[in-house]
Amino acid sequence: KDEQRTISGQTKAILAEAKLGLKKSLGQNFLTDRHIIERIVSAIPLTEQSGVIEIGPGIGALTERLVKQAGSVVGIELDRRLLPVLHQLFATNENISFIHGDALKVDYHQLIHDYLSECKDVHVIANLPYYITSPLIIHLLEGGYPFQNIVIMIQKEVAERLMAQPHTKAYGSLTLFAQYYATVERVTHVSRNVFVPRPQVDSMVVKLTLRNVPPVQTSDQTLLFQIIRAAFQQRRKTLQNALHAQFQSQATKDQLHSWLQTSGIDGKRRGETLTLAEFAHIAKVFAEELR
Ligand code: SAM
């Protein structure tokens, strides 16, 4: 590969100089392809008034581009050993701060208040170990944070779940959860060959654009997600049976049957055939009946 395109030499040099052994447990695979970095960063329309929260900056492959384009950047890095390296790399940049912390535990309202209160729009960029992908997406979406976009690098299979259509294997509660809070678009496929060290799987970058208003109305969001999770927990069961397993202490089978009829949904269907709007119809009737 031509030198212009890749920064793997630079990445290795930084790591060697800092004498850092990489932590596999923290998913430390660093991006080294300028084109991919460019595509990820340009997925967000950044201006001088934008704030970016970068989760897991590592040794700054994406950060380097972000500081040039955004007004302010905050990097949250869990590996304490990387903070002096990051501080040194970005010593001359005034628009970046680094925080040592766990992205799953950060209070983003506080973070925005402390570091990005002047920004007009706030975005998140994350390239993280895959085992925290789903919890992180849930944490970021559920928190009610004023993010405009979340651009996240994830395992291909999770990306497929986020963008799945009904009647497919990938369609599930994560699909509907994401759909409730955001629209999801594919940004780019990322080959395992553009990382140092090389991971075991290929990745996908997706962009979640947060909605101002949910696409369905519900008086009880918790109940809506409880119904959705129940419907997919036992995917092979009919909706009627799956919901019975969840709500048996609150309703008889006959009652559930008639509630489903009232919602206009055939209880013999399987969860994977229902749209978010149909789940919302069910939640509406259940909310009234369970009151
Ligand atoms: N963004 C860099 C890049 O693209 O080259 C690094 C990506 S590397 C896959 C993931 C980074 O996230 C590592 O630097 C790791 O230490 C950090 N990390 C892992 N778990 C984290 C967590 N819970 N919160 C914040 N950072 C985390």
TrEMBL record:
Molecular functions per Gene Ontology: 16S rRNA (adenine(1518)-N(6)/adenine(1519)-N(6))-dimethyltransferase activity; RNA binding
Catalytic activity: adenosine(1518)/adenosine(1519) in 16S rRNA + 4 S-adenosyl-L-methionine = N(6)-dimethyladenosine(1518)/N(6)-dimethyladenosine(1519) in 16S rRNA + 4 S-adenosyl-L-homocysteine + 4 H(+)
Major localisation: cytoplasm
CDD domains associated with the record: AdoMet_MTases
InterPro entries in the record: KsgA/Erm, rRNA_Ade_diMease-like_C, rRNA_Ade_Mease_Trfase_CS, rRNA_Ade_methylase_Trfase_N, rRNA_adenine_dimethylase, SAM-dependent_MTases_sf
Highest taxon, organism lineage: Bacteria
Lineage, uppermost ranks: Bacteria, Bacillati, Bacillota, Bacilli, Bacillales
Family the entry assigns: Belongs to the class I-like SAM-binding methyltransferase superfamily. rRNA adenine N(6)-methyltransferase family. RsmA subfamily.
Name of the protein in its database record: Ribosomal RNA small subunit methyltransferase A
Keywords linked to the UniProt accession: Cytoplasm, Methyltransferase, RNA-binding, rRNA processing, S-adenosyl-L-methionine, Transferase
Major enzyme class: transferase
Name of a matching Pfam family: RrnaAD
E.C. number: 2.1.1.182
Residues annotated as domain Ribosomal RNA adenine methylase transferase N-terminal: 36-212
Gene3D superfamilies linked: Ribosomal RNA adenine dimethylase-like, domain 2, Vaccinia Virus protein VP39
UniProt entry tagged with the keyword Ligase: no
Gene Ontology cellular-component terms listed: cytosol
S-adenosyl-L-methionine listed as a keyword: yes
Binding site for S-adenosyl-L-methionine: N29, L31, G56, E77, D102, N127
Organism the protein comes from: Seinonella peptonophila
Gene expressing this chain: rsmA
Subcellular location(s) per record: Cytoplasm
Stated role: Specifically dimethylates two adjacent adenosines (A1518 and A1519) in the loop of a conserved hairpin near the 3'-end of 16S rRNA in the 30S particle. May play a critical role in biogenesis of 30S subunits.
